[in-house]
C-alpha cells in the first residue's frame, strides 16, 4: 500500500489519517502470467492500478484479430472504461503478460471515496485527464505518423517495455506487420 500512497502523493498530499481512510477502498490481487482480469462480455467491476507486472488491454474484431489499445505497467491505471463507467458488458480484454499485483477499485468505491475525501476526486480527475490526453496522442500518431515515427515514439516513451514485451505485440500496438517491426528495430539499433 505504500506504493499507492506514493502514487497518490505525486498529485495530492495526504495525511496518515487520510491515507488510512483511503486504503479500505482498494483490494490487492496477485495476477499470474496469462491470467485475464477482464474478458469480453464480463462486467468490468474494477479499475486497476498496477503495483507490478505488465498488462495488455485489447479487443478482438469480428474476424478475431487482436487490436491492442494499451500496455500497462507499474503505476498505470487500466480497465475497460466503457464497461466500468457505464456498468455494461465489456468489449475489451485485460490480460497479464508478466506476473504481478494490482490494486482493485470498484466504481462505487471510487464515488464514495471522492465524496468522503474531495481531494481524491481531484486526484481521479487529474489521472483521467492524463489518460485521455495519452489516448488522443496515440490516436493522432496512428492516424498521421508513418510506422518509423510510431516506432520511435514508442521506443522513446517506453524503453523498458521494448525489452519485456514480445515483438508481435509491439507490432500489433503500432499497427504494423511483424516483418515491418523487425526492419524498424534493426534500422534503429
UniProtKB/TrEMBL annotation:
Cyclic nucleotide-binding domain residues: 34-69
- Known Pfam families for this protein? cNMP_binding
Gene3D superfamilies given in the database record: Jelly Rolls
Q: Which InterPro entries match?
A: cNMP-bd_dom (IPR000595), cNMP-bd_dom_sf (IPR018490), RmlC-like_jellyroll (IPR014710)
Recorded protein name is Crp/Fnr family transcriptional regulator
